[in-house]
């Protein structure tokens, strides 16, 4: 069975193709500037061969058609025909109570659109693209793996806000949690690496979007993100945790309305807002090394929030067997890892600074004296979504 896994942005489409008989990745590719008045860069890698071209791509349906044309090309493709693709799986973000792994239908799409306030950067492009694909490729089932599904195991005391209970029941106001595919992969992989199916693991998914999750035996117990992906530790351009009552003061002092302020919190804040340099941690680290004090502050705040959530998750799990760093920043930023793990020796967490400076890929970073293992593990959200897509199709029959 061949499954295509799609990762969508408002103007981008990235994909991987898996042969699920052996979970082998056959191809990967990406297209940017979709729907823009400019040529898109269309890149694909099949069997180690890279192919690139530029052309205008009007919408996501056209992007997927190009992808399928590349994959079925008689000279360079790896599929005989479009019919070989059994399904397209999506790492979808939020649909409230319609969580879990679902074959995409009108009810799910309507719900995702109605709840766009929760995930404004994610739900609209996913729902729009899914509608386009249903129309363009009615023969290919679409499956949505909701990121919130993994966190449904979190005990109620760690999911409930102290708000009027009517809000919980009527409006679904609760800590939903996100990055479920990544945390699920880390939980599964760490059980293999540690040969311990009941390990207590703190997964630090750090990248453009960041969250931490505490797991026991690969089962989510608590996570840093709450009702929306705007919460938790600072994101690349989203605020993270923030006192909502500050908005009233900001509204009066700035003269801006609430919608404008919320837009600034979700697009001009986080690492971008603090540093004034970039939303990319690599640029911020370069500026910080050059003496830029705002950039230095941004890194300190980001790492301090990571550390605070590590402490919270240590309390929730009653200790940890391992702390894992994954995602673009988690895997590659020795600066963030060192700042986040500094002065945690009281909890038996001791980083080996020499290992931290040279680590690549799947590796350990803890000192010999550390009671808690420290790892970097590249995540693989796409294979998780592919597995969940096969599971959904098997249930559908």
Walkthrough of the structure:
By secondary structure, the chain is an alpha/beta fold. The protein has two domains: 2-145, ATPase, nucleotide binding domain (Nucleotidyltransferase, domain 5, 2-Layer Sandwich), CATH 3.30.420.40; 195-376, 2-Layer Sandwich (Nucleotidyltransferase, domain 5), CATH 3.30.420. 38% of the residues lie in helices and 20% in strands. The chain has 14 helices and 14 strands. It has helices spanning 60-71, 106-114, 123-136, 165-171, 180-194, 246-254, 258-267, 270-275, 281-289, 293-317, 327-332, 334-341, 353-358, 381-396; strands at residues 2-9, 12-19, 24-31, 40-46, 49-55, 85-90, 101-103, 142-145, 200-205, 211-216, 219-223, 322-326, 363-364, 373-376. The strands form two sheets. The protein has an eight-stranded mixed sheet, with helices on both faces. It has a six-stranded mixed sheet with strand order 11-10-9-12-14-13, with helices on both faces. Strand 10 (211-216) and strand 11 (219-223) form a beta hairpin. Helix 2 (106-114) packs antiparallel against helix 3 (123-136) and helix 9 packs across helix 10 (293-317). The chain is globular, with a radius of gyration of 21 Å. The chain starts with a strand and ends with a helix. The model has no long low-confidence stretch (mean pLDDT 94).
